[in-house]
Amino acid sequence: MAPGESDVFIPGEFAPHRPIFHIGYHNSERNAPPTDIQYGNLLNQGFNFVTTPLTNDHFRERVFRLVQDHLAILKDSGDDGSSNFTTPGADPILPPLTPQDTSVFPSAAVNTYTGYISPWIDPCSPNRIISSISRQVLNLEINYANFCGIRSLILPGPTRDASKDGGIQGLAQYSRAVQEALTIGSRLTFLVHMPMYREPLAGLEVRTLSSVLGATPPREAGKEIDLYTAWDSWNHIRSVCDYDMRLFVALRIPKVMPEMALQNRWFAEPLHYLTIGPESFQFNKPGYPSLSKHHQNMIFTYMRLKNTPWLLLSDLGSDGQGTSEQPDTKSHDQFPSLAEAGDKVVKRSASTNDYLSYVRWLEMQQTPLPALESNTLTSFQDWLQSPLQPLADNLESATYEVFEGDPVKYNQYEAACIEALSEWKELGKPTSKEGVVVIAVAGSGRGPLVTRALTAAEFTGVPVEVWAVEKNPNAYVYLLRQNEAIWGGRVKVVKTDMRAWKGPVLSESPETGPVYGKVDILISELLGSFADNELSPECLDGIQHVMAKPHGISIPSSYTAHLSPIATPKLYADILSRYPTESTAFDTPWVVRLFAIDFVSQRVPGHEQIQQAWEFVHPIPESTLKGIEARRSGGVVGGGGGSMAGAAGANDHNSRFCHLTFVCRTRGVVHGLAGYFESTLYESQLASAKGQKVEISTHPERIDDKSKDMISWFPIFFPLKQPLYFPADSELEVSMWRQTDDTKVWYEWLVEAWMWVGESNRIKVGSSALCTSRKVACLM
Ligand SMILES: C[S@@+](CC[C@H](N)C(=O)[O-])C[C@H]1O[C@@H](n2cnc3c(N)ncnc32)[C@H](O)[C@@H]1O
Predict the structure, then answer these.
(1) Which domains are delineated in the chain?
(2) Which helix H or strand E contains 730, and what residues bound it?
(3) What torsion, rounded to 10 degrees, do the Cα atoms 126, 130, 134, 135 define?
(4) Nearest residue to 763 via CA among 711, 720, 726
(5) Beta-sheet pairing, 553-555 with 521-524
């Protein structure tokens, strides 16, 4: 169950608010950082941060000359720099920086700047001289930035992706250079500047060091573009860098928004900046800049992230150097859509302030965060929590208080009790005790379900006898006090493990001892984020013998677990960083409010995006109960072994297996499985209301229908030890097991990627290891 124990969710802390925009200023033409006056002006205008180049044109010219001179010497000896063989002459070494090469010097303001590495380097170049010098420039600038006290650096992204023009080699070189950068700037944060996708002829082409080799072929316009190459490159870089937590993306917003699937893909990545250049803007009739509705929606969505990306306005309007322009306070509610922005629009030259005031206006257009996105709840986004073990451990009062903060779950339980009691009366069902329906709340905690059962009885006018069974000795004290203070002594409180409870005591005398009766309605809430992961099936099996036969019912009557493969690079990085000190980090099914995730599969006929793994129904058949008893007492003839070594198999009926196929249209990477659950608390027994149910659900597509706004449970995440890359049009085959050896329960999971080659042939293109939570199993 979630939220966790350390952070207490405070209901009512719901002051409506919008995400705040943190806006930066970047001018790629700059040769030096802003002066103090310029910086002050930018801050006064409403910017929150600025970028600075680290070196200047003097340095650039020096480096270009060095490369040109060296290539000329090589040419004379018949080497063009593309050979990988050892050459007679040593490759050039960059001389150190001189005061003429940079205008950045340590100062109070410099600490707050974001450094932009020279965009003219080309570590991807197939020419070894150019890639080597590019790496040297990179390292030199990182070192110098570090010396000056700069904390964040933007790295111009790779100039080419893997697919062609020596791109694979180039990307390997680039990724290796970034890995080195992380070592050199060991306390710096790095942002790789990536386009969302490679737009044909988008933006300004920077004249890189490679230009000394001669003209590069122009990019072909009009050809069908592969939307995922830029993401692929990013995935390559961060994989080589082992998902370093100091490596982020500065994502360039395109001119034309791509399909949602690609937007969702980037949503899951560690976005630090969204950079917006002139190409993304359109102009309204009076000539003011605006963004299309698609751009706006994408920004609004990304701003819902816990770590809201910062917006970097790049090359927008005049430099702002020394200006005292004030933000424009005019209304922007007439900004047109992309379609509306026609040629007729008057193009006045927009100033930096026009763009800034537009983005500030956009900030106010965000719909206020709903109550469920309060600060407290937002802080749970993608935050890993170890699952609770309410059976093996005794929960603290604060944890119960967190559960009790969510009324939705209790409302649904109360509705289920009302239905059950009303139908009891309507159907004239027998009761196990004269004149009263006997209810037991198994695992009562601090008693909220007891209160709801009593309320339901009052509401329906059905007389009840209520028992509260709880094994936590501390919660038992609380229950006794509740009985005195709140329930007027109407509840019989028992401190015991429900599996050892003999049932409600009907009468007791010295001669006969206690005489035990039965329970008509057994209420429990022993569900975890994956339904059965807090051992509800095992506990309910153990108490089933007290249920009246055949009419006794369980609330819940059933529950199902659901799965979907997801990309969640941030969680993967988090788990990887824990692994050195927490050896079971990859074996743990984590409870987590999954947020920055991408469902990598698509819903297609016959294959849902989130699929059911298995189901548990209560009560279980009598014959199964008898079988358990026989196995436990060694009465089974034959091998005598359960499916696990050394086990009698007494809990084997609670093991499960599923094999699910998920269809992926685009290529991607999977980091693990997201798990959800649904439960039917009560299903109508009236012929006239057949199929009517009271349910709860955390299934993202169904929660709103079944238990809207329920936050009692966060999803569960089953991690893979290694990210699994898969090509477009693959199928992810997921095998999942619920395993048991009679003393504990754990899960095992395996993900394989398969691809069709021809009409009837599939080949395996990758597989995860067989993962298991056996080392952190739930103890029965
Ligand atoms: C998830 S909490 C629910 C508490 C409460 N019913 C509620 O909804 O707020 C589960 C409770 O069941 C108790 N519990 C778990 N296994 C039990 C068992 N075998 N016998 C008795 N109580 C058990 C735990 O101590 C805990 O109080």
Answers:
(1) 23-214+224-367 (3.20.20.150), 397-779 (3.40.50.150)
(2) strand 730-740
(3) 60
(4) 726
(5) parallel
- Residue 30: both structure tokens together: 């700059």
Query: Which residues make Cβ contacts (< 8 Å) with residue 99, sequence separation at least 6?
Result: none
Mark out the alpha helices in 512-610 (DSSP H runs): 536-543, 569-578
CA of 539 to the centre of ligand 1 (A): 10
Whether residue 299 contacts residue 291, with contact meaning beta carbons closer than 8 Å, is answered with: yes
Question: Using CA atoms, how far apart are residues 220 and 217, in angstroms rounded to an integer?
Answer: 9
Instruction: Please list, in sequence order, all residues whose beta carbon lies within 8 angstroms of the beta carbon of residue 24, skipping any fewer than 6 positions away.
Output: 47, 48, 49, 50, 51, 114, 273, 310, 311, 312, 313
Q: pLDDT averaged over the chain?
A: 90
Backbone angles phi, psi at 656, to 5 degrees: -145, 160
pLDDT confidence of 162, banded at 50, 70, 90?
confident
Residue the block writes with tokens 């009593």 = 454
Where is the binding site for S-adenosyl-L-methionine, in residues?
A: 400, 409-410, 470, 497-498
What would the pLDDT profile of 48-107 be if each residue is shown by its tens digit?
999 999 999 999 999 999 999 988 888 777 676 666 665 656 788 999 999 999 999 999
Burial class (CB in 10 A: 0-12, 13-18, 19+), 89: exposed
* Interior/surface letters 305-338, b for 16+ CB within 10 angstroms, e for the rest: bbebbbbbbbbbbeebeebebebbeeebeebbee
Pair of tokens at residue 240: 């080589």
Catalytic residues: 525, 534
Question: Of the residues 1, 5, 388, 391, which should be mutated to test ligand 1's pocket, given the most ligand atoms within 8 Å of the CB?
Answer: 391
Q: Is 765 helix (H, G, I), strand (E, B) or coil?
A: strand
pLDDT over 70 for what percent of the chain? 89
* 170 or 745, which is more confident: 745
Ligand 1 binding pocket mutation candidate from 408, 444, 530, 559 (most atoms within 8 A of CB): 444
Residue 423 has pLDDT above 60, yes or no: yes
CA distance 321 to 621: 80
Give the pLDDT confidence of 142-154 residue by residue, as tens digits: 999 999 999 999 9
